Every structure is written in structure tokens, then in C-alpha cells.
Amino acid sequence: MKKIIPLLALLILSNSCDDGDLEIKNIDFSEVTAQKCSEKDVIYKIKDKEMLVLSIPASTFISDETTAGSPIELSINSTNQVVYRQYNADVSSDNICPTIPSATPSLLEEWTATAGTIQITTTAVKTTDETTNATRITGYKHYIVFKNITFQKPNGTQVYETYVFGNYTTTITSLPFTFDELADKSSCSDIIYNFNGSEVLSLNTSNYNTLFENTVTTTPRTALIDDSTVLKYQLFNNVITNDYFCASTTPTSPLLTQEWTGVNGVSGVSGIIEVSTTTYGTGFQHTIHLKNVSLKKGNSTFSLGTDYLFGSFIVNP
Question: How many Å apart are CA 140 and CA 129, to the nearest integer?
């Protein structure tokens, strides 16, 4: 028995010795909302005395959805940094955001990521009109994961094969879409426009003479959005008119800031254009409705709803 006790003591001592790494300490910010410094490109999470910091260029967070299964990937380096900090008291944004951060509370421990990959999967944040089923994009949610991240700690390293940083949301200004019911045919082509200030909705179809035939309809004429019938929404930085599109060369002003294109339709399901024609004095009035139409830019889409009124225009033969 006397021989066994020293042996057990030696075994316990050997198992308690540091092999070069600190005791594993799990850092968990899963329930914490990510915030961004207004003064610099720093995203951070704070939990009482702990802080997890991600420093990457703001341009990394694109206003577009990423392709399924293909997140944005960045290597952790001097430009893309990840840092964990622990303080001796509760911390706040004052400890990270100002040009000269607050010196209190005191920093007790800091881990700096020296290797690994940052993965960002972006999806659109949308609102839905329950009456029309129209959607609008109000922002983008960026799901951030660290893969094979290595933290250099004061007395060793700690590696996470997968560490979920979580969601960081950016907001955008929703498209105005404040068109009235008055559309118009271009003075220099068969394109139909609806202008409102700096935005324009246009319909360009190679089947103009058929779709907008000057005869009264009993049932709407229909067409599908496709390569020959193109719907566009364009937003400029200043007032836009028909003259811009009729110029022999594209004017340098106003500047196009966004362009969304109609998603190709499916017969009887989506992307449907309906045209109803009535008499108007000695002419004809064509009224265009868009049924279950969506617009797309990059990988992002939004819906104009079940039935969207493009507008009406008058033709005097």
C-alpha cells in the first residue's frame, strides 16, 4: 500500500503538468449579438468581461446573396484579424471602437488568431406585404464561421476546427418603388416606361405590335418575361427622363446606381405580363399588369407581388 500511494501521487502530478498549452477554455458568444464600430471596420461581441473582435474591411460584406454552398472565404492575416480578450471587469464598445480605446477595465488576457479561414454566407433580409405578397430587401444577414482557426494564447495555442461567430446584419435603403399609374411609350423606340424622379421601370418586347395591338380586349393578352420580353428597374442618382434613353450615346449624367432585371417567367405560374386594351377618346389605352413577377440583381431577388400595376399609356393611331 505504501508503494502504491507515491505512485498515484506521481501519476496525478504528471497529468497536471502543462504540456505547453493553457488549460482548454471554451469561448462562447453564441447568444451575443454582433455589433459594428462606427469609427472603424471592426465587428465585435461583448459578454460581461469578455470580447470577441473581428477586424475585416467593410467591403467584404457585399449587398448580395452568396451562391449556395459557396461562402466568401478570407484567410486570417494582418488584414483579416480575429482576437479574443478578457478583462478584469465588464467591458463596452469604449474599449474597442474609439481611436484611443478606454484603458479601463484592465486587459487580463488576449488571444490572437494566427491561422485559419473566415467563411461568410450572405442572405437577404426581406419584408413581406401580407396583402400583395410583395417583398422588399431591407438588409443582408452575414453568417460568419471560422474554420481551423488557431489562437495564440499567452502560454500556448488553441485550435477550433469550426467556430461559429454568428450573424452580422447590414441594412440598406429599400428601393423607392413609388410609381404612379401613368406609363408612356418611348418617343424613339417601342419601349414602355414608367418614370418617377430618379427611378424608372421599363418593358422592352420584340412582340410590341402583338402585345399592344390597338383593338379592344375581352381577355388580357399575355406574355412571359424572357430574353425577348425584358423588364427592368433602374435607379439613378438624379432625375431621369425619356431623353436619357433616346440619346445617341449614353449620357454621363445622371449616373445609374442600381439595375434589376425581371426573372424569366414560367407559363401559368410566374413572370406573366397581362395587357388589357380599351378605347380612350379616338385612341386606345393599354394597361399593363405584372403577375407574380420577381426582379433580380446578382444572386438577390424580390417579388413585386401577386398583381403589380405597371401602368397605362395611350396611343392615338
Answer: 18
Is the preceding omega at residue 105 within 30 degrees of 0, hence cis?
A: yes
- Contact by Cβ (8 Å): 115, 148: yes
Inform me whether the pLDDT recorded for 218 exceeds 80. Answer: yes
Rounded alpha-carbon distances, angstroms, from residue 311 to 209, 273, 278, 290: 18, 12, 14, 10
**The dihedral formed by the CA atoms of 119, 298, 234 and 278, expressed in degrees to the nearest 10:** -130
Beta bridge pairs of residue 135: 128
In the predicted model, what is the mean pLDDT of residues 38-42?
A: 95
pTM of the model: 0.88
Q: How far apart are the first and last CA of the chain?
A: 114
Q: pLDDT-based confidence at 138, cuts 50/70/90?
A: very high
Q: Are strands 221-224 and 229-236 parallel, antiparallel or unpaired?
A: unpaired
Residue 226: beta bridge partners? 229
Do 96 and 43 touch, CB atoms closer than 8 A? Answer: no
In angstroms, what CA-CA distances link 167 with 40, 61, 164?
A: 19, 12, 9
**Residue appearing with cell numbers 395611350:** 314
User: How do residues 178-194 score in pLDDT, each as one tens digit?
Assistant: 999 999 999 999 999 99
Amino acid, res. 55: S
Q: How many residues does the chain have?
A: 317
Structure confidence by residue, pLDDT tens digits, 57-84: 999 999 999 999 999 999 999 999 999 9
DSSP annotation of 33 reads -
Grid coordinates representing 148? 481551423
Cβ atoms of residues 154 and 143 within 8 Å: no
Q: Torsions phi, psi of 276, nearest 5?
A: -110, 135
CA separation for the pair 283, 296 (Å, rounded): 35
